[in-house]
Give the backbone structure.
Amino acid sequence: MVYKIREFGPLQNDDLQRVIMAYNIPLFQLNFDEAEEKAVVDTLRSKWISMGPRSQALEEKFAEMLGSKHAVAMANCTAALHLALLAVDVQENDEVLCPSLSFAATVNCIKYVGAIPVFCDVESLKRPTISIDQIKKNYTDKTKAIIVMHYAGHSCDMEAIMQFANEKNIPVIEDACHAPLSEWNGKKLGTIGAIGCYSFFSNKNISTGEGGMLITDDAQIHEKVKLLRSHGMTTMSFERSKGHATAYDIVELGYNYRMDDIRASIGLAQLEKLPADLDKRKHVRSWYLEELKEADRIVVPFADNTEFSSNYVFTVNLKDSDYEKRDTLRNFMHENGIQTSVHYPAIHRFSIYQDLPAELPMTEYICDNTLTLPMFGNLTREEVSFICDTLKKGVQHVFG
Ligand SMILES: Cc1ncc(COP(=O)(O)O)c(C=O)c1O
């Protein structure tokens, strides 16, 4: 097959153009068009660019789409996770159960509040999500919360996790960064535990550059998070500008974790497009599954999942492999113009976490032997075939 370099629209920045052109098939492509441009221009012309009516509209729309009572727009998901732990009253030296196979923010937030991350291994190559057996094993009377992460947009074992958390009366915080509109048992991921946190970073299903959202059904948590998001102030500048309140008090030590209306307007445009984009991703995933169903050495995580998924990323795990073989395979893909990534380097191996106890053989195997392939709505059937053919050739090349 002759594979043509894609044509991209004109970019202002030559360096950026070169970076994007380096791969025939990038890992991810922004789902942006005139809708986002118009949203930004309209916001600029409205002359209100910080948190205001568009942020509020984004919160309302997000809560409605997720079926949650409350949504709080945030500067990013890291801030959302931080406030989530404060809102459920996790304190210094408390323990929080968490996965290590995630982005660092899932665990850094625990350190922000002075608590102790207790790493739990994931289930298996087929289900790289936090293991209930590990949660039970690592639970102590100092455990004050569980953070779960719905890897790639597929659900953790929420039935077992919620049952255990309810028995012990501890809150579950869902890091649902990968999973907007993903489902488990008829419920949207992020609405099952006490709090759900989402990221709108550029490469997420909803992209606003930076941005995030916290959702909850609990009115007290909602009030507390709103307060902490903006310095612990009793009123916001948009309310004051409307003349509704002229003074404010500071009643708690809060932060500036606000979103702004420029990003919120992009978020609103992105939410409109989300269902159609997820539908396209569903097809892309089904093509991958078909192409890889008989591939030796390749395990596709959650291949049997029939629940609706956001398909944030598409990963494969290599059987009977090691990190050198995986890296050789990655290079082979790159030489063929296909960008890949690794979700994730294990958090417990980072320097700042090395003094914490962690026996996580499955997490370590996966992070050494996993490969993330391109995933976005506009990937074509032909491109997926090309990626999978190249992957199979690469496996042959590496493993013989
Ligand atoms: C699983 C997970 N948790 C948390 C975050 C942090 O999100 P943000 O970049 O919006 O702070 C990310 C973002 O990359 C993520 O993938």
